[in-house]
Structure formats: structure tokens, C-alpha cells
Amino acid sequence: MYERKTTPNLNCGLDLIGEVLYGKWKIRLLWFIDQGYQRPSELQRKIPDASRRVLNIQLKELEDHELVTRKIYPVVPPKVEYSLTDFGKTLIPVIATLGQWSDEHEERLREVILKQPVSSDIDVRN
Amino acid sequence: MYERKTTPNLNCGLDLIGEVLYGKWKIRLLWFIDQGYQRPSELQRKIPDASRRVLNIQLKELEDHELVTRKIYPVVPPKVEYSLTDFGKTLIPVIATLGQWSDEHEERLREVILKQPVSSDIDVRN
DNA sequence: TCATATAGGGATAAATTGATCCCCTATTGC
DNA sequence: GCAATAGGGGATCAATTTATCCCTATATGA
């Protein structure tokens, strides 16, 4: 497993939330789990761009941070279900705010993201 | 300058907001600029853990994404001021939501972040 | 003359994150 | 026996992000 070499900054609230929410798929994982997609395979289908492996790793981190719990059913083939903890649930309105903002500004966002490379870098040979 | 080798995912709103807000210091930069700390040196003093260089790079990205504008005063020594664009200002309530959540849960967050390494990894030889 | 302040950037190294590949478990059904 | 199913993990590589180091410029004040 990867071992951190630097100590995280934990000065202000924004550092703290960064520690638990940074990770390419974490916000989506929380969101989809809240929506009822609780099994790993369901989550993979909802987030096909992420590899199985990375989702597992990020789910594990969410679990370590007590935002989700993992319940294993002792059946074959195995069955696992993730749920939000009460703590994790408090994040849902926050995520909703993020989602709402990006939905409202979707078009603008696409523009500014895709206009790369920036004007000064445009190569007229294209 | 670093050149991207993969194309970003832009499927849903959460991908989009990720594109503009990912970056260790970006949220803080937006927040402090909104608070009136507009000059690079002021921002550096507010965020001493970030190097000058990285702040410049992230400010540049915020500018490319039209969240801030950069005004250069032709004086010596040089003077530069960043301001939020109207677009950037729409993010402030979103950031406030993030900040509020993490302030409310500050103690809990510190706990779960610092309890690392997780129980199964604890080495009794310590 | 030299340090300070102010803003910036290139080159490069280090850290972190994400992706790929291949392997394991056990049962059911063909 | 072999494939499919469902969940998982080690090793390793690639991509990305952040940090470090050192350089530019000009004016002011000691």
C-alpha cells in the first residue's frame, strides 16, 4: 500500500474536507451510494470510466474516514453492500450544492474547459 | 508547461466542477480573493504552505477558466491584483457550503484523518 | 554596493494518484 | 474440467500534481 511521505496540512476546514473528498471518484461514489447503488458491481456500472481497482481503493478510504460502511454477506458468490454512515449523510447536501452549481453552469464550464489550449498557445498551423 | 496526455471525462456536472476546482489551493485562492486579498504577495502570506510557484500556476488556471481576472499595474515594483469574475462569484456560496460543513465537523474530521494508519495496520512493535 | 520588495518563469525532482495486468476465493451450471 | 459470477488485492507503470531551486527585472533605502 502507498505510504504517505509528507504530513497533510490540517490548518483550516478546507484542508480537512480536502483530505476526505479528494480523489477522482469519491464524490460520485458517495452520491451513487446514497441513490441506492450499493454493491460494488453496481457502482462500477454507474462509473464505467473508473477501473474496478481504483474504486475499491477509494471506497476503502471513504470507509476509513467513516463516511461509508461496508457490509459483507457470507454467501457465494460474495455479496457486499456499502451504505452511508450518518456522518456520510451529512455530506449529501454539500454534494448536492456542488452538483447544482455545475448543472447550472454546465455550458459555460464546457466552454472554458475545452477552449484549451489557451489563446496564446493556439498554433495557426492547425 | 505540462501537457495533458489523456482527455478529461466531461460526462456529468461533477466531472466539470472537478476540472476547475481540483488543485490543492484553488478553493482557498478563490475564497481569499473574495475576502479582499487580491495581490499575489498577500495571497502567499495567507497560504504560507503553498509555494509561490504553485500559487502562480493555479491562479493562471483559474484565470484560464474565467473564474478570476488579473490586472497588471505598470508600476515599479510591479503590482498585480486578482479579482473574481461574475462567474467566479457564483462559486462563493458553494465554497461557503463546503467551509461550513467542515467547520461543523472539524473535530470528527481531525479524528478520522489522524487515526491513520487504520487499525488493521497498527504495528504492535511501536 | 547590497539587501528588500514585487511579480514571474524554466527546469527538474519528488510525491501522489490513477490505471493495467494478473492473480485468488468458492459455487453453480454446463 | 471449464466458464461465469462476485469481490478483492499485489505489483507495477503512467499520468498528474506539487515542490524546489535558481534565474529575470527595477526602484528604494541603508
From TrEMBL, chains A, B:
Q: Which residues cross the membrane?
A: none
Source organism superkingdom: Bacteria
Q: Which InterPro entries match?
A: HTH_HxlR, WH-like_DNA-bd_sf, WH_DNA-bd_sf
> One short Pfam family name for this protein?
HxlR
Keyword DNA-binding part of the UniProt annotation: yes
Where does the HTH hxlR-type domain lie? Answer: 12-110
UniProt KW keywords: DNA-binding, Transcription, Transcription regulation
* GO MF annotation, one: DNA binding
| UniProt xrefs under PANTHER family | TRANSCRIPTIONAL REGULATOR, TRANSCRIPTIONAL REGULATOR, MARR FAMILY
Q: What is this protein called?
A: Transcriptional regulator, HxlR family
- Organism of origin is Dyadobacter psychrophilus
